[in-house]
Amino acid sequence: MERVCGICSNIHTLTLCQAMEGLTGQTPPPRAQYIRVIMAELERLHSHVLWAGIASKLMGFKTMFMTCFEIREKIMDVLAAISGNRVNYSMNRIGGVNRDIDDPAAILAMIEQLEGEMMKTVIPIFTTSSTARSRCAGIGVLTEEKAISCGVVGPTARASGLGQDLRRAAPYAAYAELDFEVPVEKAGDVRARLFVRALEIIESCKILRQALTKLPPGEINSGEEKFKFVTGTATSRVEAPRGEVMYSVSWKEGSRNPNRVHVRTPTFANMPAVRWMVMGARLADTPLIQASIDPCYSCTDR
Amino acid sequence: MIPDTNLINALARLLIFPGLLFAVPAAWFFLWVERKAVALMQGRVGPPFMQPFFDFIKLLGKTTPPRSGVAGLLMRAWPLIAVSAAAGAVGLLPVLPSSGGFEGDLILLLALLELPSMCIIAAGFSSRSIFGEIGSAREAVLSVAYNVVFLLAIVSVAASQHTFRLEALAQLPASPLRWLGVLAILVCLPAKLHLNPFSLPNAEQEIYSGPMVEYAGPELAMWELSHGLEWVAATGLVATLAAPHITLVWLAALIFVGLMFAIVLILSTLASATARLAIDTTVRFYWQCTLIFAVLAISSALFMRFRS
User: Fold this and answer.
1) Residue A132 to residues A25, A57, A128, B197, Cα–Cα distance (Å)
2) Distance CA A253, CA A89 (A)
3) Which of B228-232, B253-257, B297-301 has the highest mean pLDDT?
4) Which of A240, A299, B24, B100 has the most crowded CB, counting CB atoms within 10 A?
5) DSSP state, A278?
């Protein structure tokens, strides 16, 4: 399941493992829950910065694209420092995680340096550059009513005034113990989506700082290698960088494989809304409007 | 019969110096400077020094699928006309002082500078590609928007010193109206050279490079060369108007090339620091510039008249 998406590979294994934990009766130890949060937030940072790069490229702002990809490389370095991998991290397992964070202080130092860089470059350029503003403000508007009727999720919904976030509404892993804001914008245009993601970058850094400081001692997994599945269907929902990911896993007791694994990805929910966003738009703006939902075709195709 | 010395002079300027001998290497050099400067500003290594030349040679060696009929003929003709016009424009520049020129050569330079843009518009429509046609339409709208400022600037520069001769303009001391003209030309250069924030006609992410989308091989090489020559001609025009008059020939030539280099760096910095504007914002910008410039030029002319 890690290979469903190259950008949010961790989220897919996390959701699958959470669903399977429901079928096996496992509860991950607290340290594993925190490590899951750290990985998920690093992945969110990585995804949002990558998106910012792509959006800049579509605006013809190639310098910003290069800056974003340079920062993304550094985030991938942090992910590699924790998991040993740059893209498919192999961190989650049923009942915990595969690798521990041995030196949280070193990771925290790397994140603080990254945060400093992002606060100096990506966030001010996106929020104050006049050419970037002229390309984003007032285009691709999705009203709150339309957002509800289309059932959009994630930053696309939050930029249209819907304050939905599963980390707050249905906390999983260690999110219930962490303090963070859910940024919401009312305008519903591309600029609002850009703002929401920029603010989420700041919030992710805040969550990471707390999680690394509060990282509890103890085991990182249950230590079991073989699991006993009960008959039934378990679902799990998490807040991926693009919005809600839902896994539904059905198992028959004694079977070696699941009967059915259903994946619903955020792009699948957000894509139909593009039809309303591009109505009356200029041709020059359509690539940017489509990109503003941060579409992931591999996720949708799963 | 002894051939007309003017004709020989003109041919020598076009074919030897500053025509092909200076213009073509300078075109590759400035293309490299632009690419390298942008790369360094973006934290990349950038292309090696000879890259624009290698690109040109490699494109020349490719074979392209033949296009029959008038459309094919036209598609082959437009880049050649563009290269000839841009090379002719460079040929008119007084790179070395007292190297020629004739009454009214500034007007010819303007016409030659405008021809490549016309060819791009025609090429986009000849290619029959939807992206090419959109790119051409954008180029046409952009051309109408910035050329008013550009022409006003040139006319005010010429009017301030009562001559349309480039050679004479290079030797006369600059007046405030001339500096205003130089500034207005500088404002038009990003649009003329299709640089950010006015790179709409060749927007890769929106219309796949617009008019160039159907071009490949030697014809694309010619477009690249014509783009490089446009760089030399446009920055050369500003350098001619802005360079101080120096009698020492080699020093004058050095200052001329140095000024061109500086203009390329300024334009590259602007291009790498901005996003691409949409067409209506661009047109509004240039019409606002036209208004501001017209007011400034008229008040400056009136001031000069009262003073004299």
Assistant:
1) 50, 11, 8, 10
2) 30
3) B228-232
4) A240
5) T
**Structure-token pair, residue A239:** 């807040």
The answer to whether residue A292 neighbours chain B at the CB level (below 8 Å) is: no
Sheet architecture: strand order including A232-240 = A232-240, A243-251, A260-264
Q: Is A248 helix (H, G, I), strand (E, B) or coil?
A: strand
Domain that holds residue A7: 2-296
Which residues of chain B approach chain A closer than 8 Å at the C-beta? 38, 41-44, 134, 196-197, 199-200, 203, 205-207, 272-279, 281
CA distance B125 to B162: 40
Q: Do A283 and B272 touch (CB under 8 A)?
A: no
Contacts of B278 in chain A (CB under 8 A): 134-135, 282, 284-285
Tokens of B260: 């061109």
* Amino acid B280: pLDDT: 85
Q: What are phi and psi of A60, to 5 degrees?
A: 80, 15
Integer Cα distance of B268 and B195 in angstroms:
8
Which residues fall within 8 angstroms of residue A186, CB to CB, at 6 or more apart?
A144, A160, A161, A192
Q: Is A57 on the interface with B (CB under 8 A)?
A: yes
Structural domains in chain A (count) = 1
Going by the DSSP 8-state scheme, the letter that residue B4 receives in this structure is: P
Give dist(CA A266, CA A299) in Å, integer: 8
Residue pairs between chains A and B whose CB atoms are closer than 8 Å: 60
Q: Residue B34: its pLDDT value, please?
A: 92
Length of chain A equals 302
Q: How far is CA B283 from CA A61, B190, B294, in A?
A: 19, 13, 16
Chain B residues with beta carbon closer than 8 angstroms to that of A53: none
Taking only Cα atoms into account, the Rg of chain A, rounded to an integer number of angstroms, comes to 19
| Displacement of CA A239 from its chain's centroid (Å) | 6
Contact A232, A249 (CB under 8 A): no
By Cβ distance, the residue of B42, B200, B206 closest to A62 is: B42
Q: Tell me which residue of B105, B125, B212 sits closest to B166, measured CA to CA.
A: B105
Position A292: which residue type?
S
Helix orientation angle between A62-83 and A104-120, rounded to the nearest 10 degrees: 170
Burial of B302 (0-12, 13-18, 19+ CB in 10 A): exposed
Contact: B205, A287; criterion CB under 8 Å = yes
Residues of chain A contacting B283 with CB distance shorter than 8 Å: none
Tell me the C-alpha distance between A141 and A279, whole Å: 9
- Rounded alpha-carbon distances, angstroms, from residue B258 to A27, B41, B253: 70, 20, 8
Angle at A148 between CA A144 and CA A151, to 5 degrees: 135
